[in-house]
Every structure is written in C-alpha cells, then in structure tokens.
Amino acid sequence: MSKRIAVVISEDPFVTARPVEALRIALGLCAGDHETTVVLLGPASRLLMTETEEIIDVDILEKYLPSFKHLSVPFIVEPGTVMNDWSDSFSVTIRTADEIRQLIRTVDRSLVF
C-alpha cells in the first residue's frame, strides 16, 4: 500500500554523515510505490550544492544524486536558502515554515534527521 512520506533533514552534512544517510534512505523509499518528499532545512540544503568537497561521505552522495534527478524526487527548502545553478537540475520548491509544517502533518509517515 502506497504511503506519503516526508524525509526531513536538518543536520549539517559538513559535520555528520547522517544527512547523506538520510538521502540514501529516502532514495530507497522512492524505489517502492511511496510518494516521497525530501525537506532540507538549514545547512542540509548543502547536499544539493556544487561545493561538496567538505561533505562527509561525499562519495556516497555523488553516487545517489543522479537518481534523485532521474526520478524527479521533490525537494523542499526554506525561503532564503541559497541554491546555485547546479541545484536547478533537481525538483526544488521553496515553502514557508508553515507550509512545511502542514506537509509534515498531512503525510502518512515522516523520518526526521
């Protein structure tokens, strides 16, 4: 049975490997029938930037990012999040904090990292 799932990532990928692991988990959820949305809060938006040298587990990140593009997995970021031209190749939408809270309330499951 298909579920609506939100994967919320707020940790800094320059400090911990958890954000990259969270993306790997989100990709696994996309492989099924689930409607998965990835919410990147604060420094987690660095996962979609071109400057990835300082990201912990960058080799794993680089392996999975093309699949997110190919599957058009929706990413949500907060207003004021700095993105670059490379980020435009992903399905990124800007939502206010209230809209993000509403999304998380309406999904069937949420995973928070």
Please provide a written account of the structure.
The protein has 113 residues and is an alpha/beta fold. It has one domain (4-112): DsrEFH-like (Hypothetical Protein Ychn, Chain: A, 3-Layer(aba) Sandwich), CATH 3.40.1260.10. Helices cover 33% and strands 21% of the residues. A five-stranded parallel sheet has the order 4-3-2-1-5, sandwiched between helices. Helix 2 links the parallel strand 2 and strand 3 (74-77). The mean pLDDT is 91.
Quick tags:
single chain, 113 residues, alpha/beta, Hypothetical Protein Ychn, Chain: A, five-stranded parallel beta sheet, 3 helices, 5 strands
- Record field, number of beta strands: 5
Q: What portion of the residues fall into strands of 2 or more residues?
A: 15-25%
CATH architectural label: 3-Layer(aba) Sandwich
Strand order of the largest sheet: 4-3-2-1-5
- H-E string: EHEHEEHE
Broad CATH class? Alpha Beta
Please, how many helices? 3
- Unreliable stretches covering 5 or more consecutive residues: none
User: N-to-C terminal Cα separation, in Å?
Assistant: 24 Å
What's the mean pLDDT score? Answer: 91
> Nearest-angstrom radius of gyration?
13 Å
Domain count = 1
Global geometry: globular
